[in-house]
Design a protein that fits this description.
globular; 11 strands; two-stranded antiparallel ribbon; Rossmann fold; alpha/beta; 8 helices; seven-stranded mixed beta sheet; 266 residues; 29% strand
Length: 266
């Protein structure tokens, strides 16, 4: 496998992902990480229910792990990502499954090859918390969707999984594992772990309370009609060995998925 050539800076969008793209691709892989395969992608497909002939836009598509699933359903796929490096990987691996474009999810009208009000669905698979500010992303979703179209957002659960501000704790007296939340309500940009190697860098995650997503979508006539809270998976040996850990993980969701529909403006 040849290493993709570094794209010209003129083609890209300012993103924190290019410096860590090689590491990220090593973690996600061609078919998605363990959590992609077992939890995130099945939940997205269940809410999305892609139909033959539909046009589906994937924002923050990365290296295109969702593309073959959409193609398999007979729908037309376009993936957009701000990282030229990741888009090159997507084109190399999934060229038969769809079209991949470099672009900023906050400024979709500027992305050549996209037209307004033409997509049956817009998907953000574990990418919305990498985008800021939220409002122009929601505006872009509404711009791309046809009337009656749907969007599916899947993210780490903003109420329970706040980078650097939440974690597991142990109550020795009660013999219970609990989820500790240090802060929740205030929006918070969180610098993530730095990665070394040939191309060093770090990413940033943007925490927001749940109401920011519900209201942000509604501000652009995207009304939530379904919500899923998705539990993490626990290996059987852990469930048998440690009931407290198993119970905690079966009660505190790992992911949140929202589906919203674009309604006709009155």
């Amino acid at each position: 496998m040849t290493t993709p050539k570094r794209p010209s800076r003129k083609l890209g969008v300012h993103t924190s992902w290019d410096p860590v793209a090689r590491w990220y691709d090593g973690w996600v892989g061609a078919g998605g990480s363990y959590h992609h395969r077992t939890l995130a992608i099945p939940a997205v497909l269940d809410l999305l229910a892609p139909q033959p002939g539909e046009h589906i836009l994937d924002l923050g598509a990365g290296q295109g792990v969702l593309a073959p699933f959409i193609a398999r359903a007979g729908a037309h796929y376009i993936g957009v990502d701000a990282s030229p490096y990741l888009i090159n990987i997507a084109r190399r691996r999934h060229d038969r499954d769809g079209i991949f474009l470099v672009g900023d999810a906050r400024r979709l009208p500027n992305v050549a090859g996209l037209r307004p009000n033409t997509f049956d669905s817009v998907v953000l698979l574990l990418s919305i918390q990498d985008m800021d500010p939220l409002d122009p992303v929601c505006a872009s979703i509404a711009w791309a969707l046809a009337e009656g179209g749907r969007t599916v957002l899947l993210m780490t659960h903003p109420c329970f999984r706040i980078p650097r501000q939440s974690g597991w704790g142990w109550d020795d007296e009660r013999k219970l594992q609990y989820r500790r939340i240090d802060r929740y309500f205030s929006p918070l940009p969180v610098p993530m772990k730095e990665y070394g190697g040939e191309h060093t860098g770090s990413t940033r995650s943007f925490h927001r309370p749940l109401q920011a997503y519900i209201n942000g979508l509604a501000d652009h006539h995207l009304l939530v009609d379904s919500m899923r809270e998705i539990l993490g998976s626990i290996p059987p040996e852990v469930r048998r060995r440690d009931r407290a850990v198993s119970t905690a993980h079966q009660e505190i969701p790992l992911f949140l998925a929202l589906r919203a529909t674009k309604i006709t403006r009155t």
